[in-house]
Amino acid sequence: MRTILVVEDELSIRSFVCLNLRKKGYEVFEAETGEDALLVFKSQAIHVVLLDIMLPGIDGFTVCDEMRKLNPTAGIIMLTARTQDEDKVKGLLLGADDYLTKPFQMSELEARILSLLRRLSLVAEKDMAGVLISGPFSLNSLRNQLTNAGLEIKITPTEACLLQFLISNKNKGFTRDEILDQVWGTNYSGDPKVVDVNIRRIRTKVESDPKNPRYLCTEWGYGYVWKE
Prior knowledge:
This protein is of the alpha/beta class. 44% of the residues lie in helices and 22% in strands. The N and C termini lie far apart (40 Å).
């Protein structure tokens, strides 16, 4: 059974989301505050976190950052009434896998959860073929483990899936839409800029000079390529 942690301070929204997810067969945990969310996250094996940004006490951005430090393999979808691009980018840079703006349809939320679980499963299935090696990098996506010359780099499940796709097709460029289809799924209905933000986030982890990348490069006017 997949476990989901719903972090939302508005009782009506939290109850509605939890009820519908339980009907779908998920095991659901609830938290009203960021502090409570971290306590549950530490004590339970959580697969996906639905995380509101505007919370009493510590906010969702801080919770997201702490959760990523505790467990980089969990999936995180941020739920918020905020629509500004800078808030979306901030959440994704802190390690969120996806972003859904309120108000939302339950069917859309369920689709995002399934898409995220699909990415987690896809990483595990492809990893059975073995560890990917490229230059000084070694990627074990089943464990969300990336090393550079033997030194471990912490990555999220989405980053692992994205790296797996690009490294498996090294020296071949892909458009943003092609990457979306392969990593997020053909039915993904979120902001396509999620690709750019994840590329930016990965570069800060793998490049000595993220502004002048050596490996995860931009093909101007086209898309992105992993070069070896």
